[in-house]
């Protein structure tokens, strides 16, 4: 099977956009990811998938914790910052949740302790038990579809009544 075809097919699955963060010795590290899912309600478990070449993989293995921030529609630049897509130097603003760094203004944030990790192909799956969470009810999510950022507002406006 062709790698490009596989990527194109996977790109037709619309996802939310998250920033995964962790902290080691006072240094905050983050990366943009859309490979996130809920796993279990009892206990509350979530999963992130991190590529073997990503620096974040070793950082999470070391810290044994991570936070997930679900980005709001207007936070495209934050996503681009943590994806390494911005040329100019920018700083992200962080809040704290359960002592961990989370993206300020995100729709929702979770903090997690790693309870299991599994090697799967060229990625590591980190299952985290949720230790704290918060959300904003009124915000719209940032969406990623077919390699482009989208928002629900634009999508709603394009649908005929």
Quick structural overview:
The chain is α+β, with helices and mostly antiparallel strands and 161 residues long. It has helices at residues 3-11, 55-63, 76-82, 152-158, and strands at 15-16, 18-24, 27-33, 36-40, 45-51, 65-70, 94-97, 100-103, 108-120, 123-135, 142-145, 148-151. The chain has a single domain (3-158), classed as Electron Transport, Fmn-binding Protein, Chain A (Pnp Oxidase, Chain A), CATH 2.30.110.
Task: Provide a descriptive summary of the structure in words.
With 161 residues, the protein is an alpha+beta fold. Helices cover 20% and strands 47% of the residues. It contains 4 helices and 12 strands, in the order H-E-E-E-E-E-H-E-H-E-E-E-E-E-E-H. The model has no long low-confidence stretch (mean pLDDT 91). One of its GO terms (molecular function) is riboflavin reductase (NADPH) activity.
Key attributes of the depicted protein:
161 residues; alpha+beta; Pnp Oxidase, Chain A; seven-stranded antiparallel sheet; three-stranded antiparallel sheet; 4 helices; globular
User: Could you give the order of the helices and strands?
Assistant: HEEEEEHEHEEEEEEH
Task: Determine the CATH topology.
Answer: Pnp Oxidase, Chain A
The major beta sheet can be summarized as: 7 strands, antiparallel
Number of domains: 1
The N- and C-terminal alpha carbons lie at a distance of: 41 Å
**Strand arrangement in the largest pleated sheet:** 3-2-6-9-10-5-4
Question: Strand percentage, roughly?
Answer: over 45%
Tell me the structural class: alpha+beta
Poorly predicted residue ranges: none
CATH architecture: Roll
């Amino acid at each position: 099977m062709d790698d490009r075809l596989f990527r194109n097919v996977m790109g037709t699955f619309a996802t939310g956009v998250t920033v995964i963060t962790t902290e080691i010795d006072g240094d905050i590290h983050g990366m943009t990811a859309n490979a996130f899912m809920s796993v279990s309600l009892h206990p509350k478990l979530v999963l992130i998938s991190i590529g073997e070449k990503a620096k974040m993989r070793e950082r999470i293995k070391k810290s044994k914790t991570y936070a997930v921030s679900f980005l709001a529609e207007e936070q495209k630049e934050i996503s681009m910052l943590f994806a390494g897509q911005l040329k100019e130097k920018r700083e992200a603003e962080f809040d704290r949740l359960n002592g961990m760094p989370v993206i300020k203004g995100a729709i929702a944030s979770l903090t997690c302790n790693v309870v299991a990790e599994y090697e799967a192909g060229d990625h590591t799956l980190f299952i985290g038990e949720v230790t704290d969470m918060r959300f904003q009810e009124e915000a719209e999510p940032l969406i990623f579809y077919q390699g482009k950022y989208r928002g629900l507002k634009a999508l709603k406006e394009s649908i005929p009544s």
